[in-house]
Write a structure and sequence with these properties.
Blueprint: E1 9-13, H1 20-31, E2 34-37, H2 39-53, H3 59-68, E3 71-75, E4 84-88, E5 91-92, H4 100-110, H5 113-127, E6 132-136, H6 139-143, E7 149-154, H7 157-170, H8 177-193, E8 206-209, H9 215-230
Parallel strand pairs: 1-6, 1-7, 2-6, 7-8
Antiparallel strand pairs: 3-4, 4-5
Helix pairs in contact: 1-9, 2-3, 2-4, 3-5, 7-8
The structure holds 2'-deoxycytidine-5'-monophosphate.
2'-deoxycytidine-5'-monophosphate is lined by residues 16, 38-39, 42-43, 106-107, 110, 136-138, 191.
Length: 231
């Protein structure tokens, strides 16, 4: 594949813990693309709301705030496990957006129509920089419906819960499989039943079920799709 012929944006959508980040990061590395995990936009808006408003319950106030803030992503400036820097109004919030408090409120914030509108605009501006693997829930359906390559990664809730548990254990922490599974099913429910940009595969997305597959197998399947669609 000639570099000039590479598409602007490769969209990778799918539910929580479907492997989007792991696979997206590897794909970006191999293609020389920037990896943009768009979940950070909703996390940063949630953090801003918690800091400025104390809660995320006032939809209008959260929306106004999302319209005002600037969220940007940049190649990582530190080697502390991050895949990119996340800046909220110029301040590095890469790790602050990963706290349990943000985690517990982000689904609610991402269901607000005005927030989605504001953050979709910011994602498009970032995506236009080009040569990006963009991972999220609505990249192929809403943010870049014209993306030449759309991949939707899926996996059963049980498989995703096992992966999350493994990730947590790898960090030396412990957690209950049942609790993780319940949280995943709950988040799927919120993400796919929300009125605005619900989680679903684009009609022209290539769907890959990752159950029982290794990361490398999924990466190879994606590269085949990218290769065949870029010709
Ligand atoms: O992928 P993540 O866990 O960082 O996503 C955080 C939240 O943001 C999750 O509730 C889904 C939502 N999200 C979204 O609605 N649209 C996106 N493009 C990315 C994430």
């Amino acid at each position: 594949m000639n570099r000039q012929e590479k598409p602007l944006v490769i969209a990778i959508d799918g539910p929580a813990a479907s492997g989007k980040s792991t696979v997206g990061k590897i794909l970006a590395e191999r293609l020389g693309f920037f990896y943009f995990d768009t979940g950070v936009m909703y996390r940063a808006a949630t953090l801003a709301a918690l800091n400025h408003l104390g809660s995320v319950d006032d939809e209008l106030a959260v929306t106004r705030l999302a319209e005002k803030i600037n969220i940007d992503v940049r190649p990582s400036s530190l080697e502390d496990g991050r895949v990119m820097d996340v800046l909220l109004d110029g301040r590095d919030v890469t790790w602050e957006i990963r706290t349990a408090e943000v985690e517990g409120n982000v689904s609610q914030v991402s269901a607000y129509a005005g927030v989605r509108k504001a953050l979709t605009e910011q994602q498009r501006n970032i995506g236009r920089r080009g040569n990006m693997v963009m991972a999220g829930r609505d990249i192929g359906t809403v943010v870049f419906p014209d993306a030449a390559i759309k991949i939707y990664l899926d996996a059963s809730p049980q498989e995703r819960a096992r992966r999350r548990l493994q990730e947590i254990q790898n960090r030396g922490q412990s957690a209950s499989y049942e609790e993780i599974l319940t949280a995943i099913v709950h988040r799927d429910e919120i993400d796919s039943s929300r009125v605005h940009a619900p989680l679903k595969a684009a009609a022209d997305a290539f769907i890959i079920n990752t159950d029982g597959k290794t990361v490398e197998q999924v990466v190879q399947e994606c590269l085949q799709v990218i290769g065949s669609l870029s010709k």
